[in-house]
Design goal:
single chain; 177 residues; alpha/beta; Rossmann fold; seven-stranded mixed β-sheet; two-stranded antiparallel sheet; 5 helices; 26% helix; globular; binds adenosine monophosphate
């Protein structure tokens, strides 16, 4: 079967790991999708749907699984990749934003010169849970002067209402739980 994968094909390949990394969390493991060339390519095709190559100034990915998807999406859209990393990892001058996570808390950072002011960017992460991570990432992009065209997730845990925190942006996800 060589047809282009649908989001339901992708959903079937996502592995649920109960109680990881701590009791009560249903961890959505996307590594089976990444390991399958057809599914991985299909995932990137669906993530970049609606955007023409050359129409986006940069694809921004969130540490760490977001990097995998965002870097591939950037190549597909013939644009650059920009990382938003966990605090203390980026070598140059940074902006930082802190937020609460579904499990614990975190601080993310971006290089102050990561994107050109006014650049139209696509923000990509593997999963939307409470929305804190993406909200902090969006705040960082605002500080560097980027315009967020869309925030795109592979997976969304809809019952956590993460979209509420991202109301001011267009948000899209491929697989909804
Ligand atoms: P949040 O800030 O609550 O929206 O959490 C989203 C971030 O945490 C993403 O970068 C995910 O990689 C990770 N994450 C949170 N919950 C899960 C989960 N149930 N399965 C996999 N990753 C998760």
């Amino acid at each position: 079967m060589n047809a282009t994968p649908t989001s339901s094909d992708l959903a079937k390949a996502i592995r649920n790991i109960p109680d990881f990394p701590q009791p009560g969390i249903q961890f959505k493991d996307i590594t089976p999708v990444l390991a399958d060339a057809r599914l991985f390519a299909g995932c990137i095709d669906l993530l970049t749907t609606g955007f023409a190559p050359g129409s986006i100034g940069a694809v921004v990915g969130i540490d760490a699984r977001g990097f995998i998807l965002a870097a591939a999406a950037a190549l597909k859209l013939q644009t650059g990749f920009v990382p938003i990393r966990k605090k203390g990892k980026l070598p140059f001058k940074t902006f930082e934003e802190s937020y609460e996570l579904e499990y614990g808390s975190n601080t993310v950072a971006i290089h102050v010169d990561a994107v050109k002011p006014g650049a139209r960017v696509l923000l990509v992460d593997d999963l939307l849970a409470t929305g804190g991570t993406a909200q902090a990432a969006a705040a960082l992009l605002k500080r560097v002067g980027a315009e967020i065209v869309e925030i795109t997730f592979f997976v969304e845990l809809g019952f956590l209402n993460g979209r509420e925190k991202l109301r001011e942006y267009p948000v899209r996800s491929l697989v909804l739980y």
